[in-house]
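User: Here's a chain of 317 residues. Predict its fold as tokens.
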Amino acid sequence: MIWGILAGVTWALGTVTLGYVLAMAPFVSTAQALFLAPFVSTFLHDGCSAVWMLLFNGVRGELPKVGKALRTRSGRFVAVAGLIGGPVGMTGYMLAVNNMGASVGAVASAIFPAIGAILAHIFLKERMQWYRWIFLLCTLAGVFGISAGGSVEIKNVGLGLLGVFMCSFGWGIEAVILAKCLTDPAVKDAYALQIRQTTSALVYGAVLLPILRGWGFTARLFVRDNLLLFGLIALAALFSTGSYLMYYRAIGRIGPSKAMALDVTYSAWAMILTVVIFRDTSAVTPVSVLCCAVVLICSVLAAADFRELLPKRKKDG
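Assistant: Prediction complete.
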């Protein structure tokens, strides 16, 4: 459970850092920049994360094992999970935000633990007790409360709902696939993350950016004046890479439904870190503080199987 909580903390660090990057001049200078910023930043983020994992696995001398893992059936399914969770899930998130507002997008990104729990029950036979469902729903309500002050601008309900579907199911399916793949001894956490991030970055660069005609804008970012921007993206990717590693470890040890419930605490940690790092208290209200506490407490309870805390009875004889 500690790995899952730390995954939420480090993801929040990456989110706060990336949020600062998206407010920098190159991403807000024109209407095209505003439109492409989420996709280009995600491409650069996942690309940097893939490089971090390349260094991590390279220093440990395990790159040949990554290639060997990719050639296994489980490794190929990790690549499929990367495609579903990266381009599909993240594109859905951006569709929800752009067409139904930031607060709806935040809630959409937080629904995936519930979807993932249902899928884990169907495909992995992972049972979730009734009280854990209640705590999970309380967690999602807390996430909604934290983001309630965000913008709700309904532009296109159809595209917005499509985005919510892509996001919640994409990230939920990804976690379930990973849980199954990580049971393969040939596919360790670090190998799976290398495959996942590389797949995501390649699909963004080879498919999404050309479709969105975003390569020209991306190329123009590579100038000396943007060294700080790339440094911050690399830092955000470092935080997120650590988050993914801990998230994968949590999935492997306690299962996807519990790991997802803990990971979604990033929404509460993001608000806390915004206050601590940037001294920005604009989002701090009695309601947001209460919702923040609900998310942190209920997520842990949603991941806890109380039966495991009870002493086991010794068999007679």
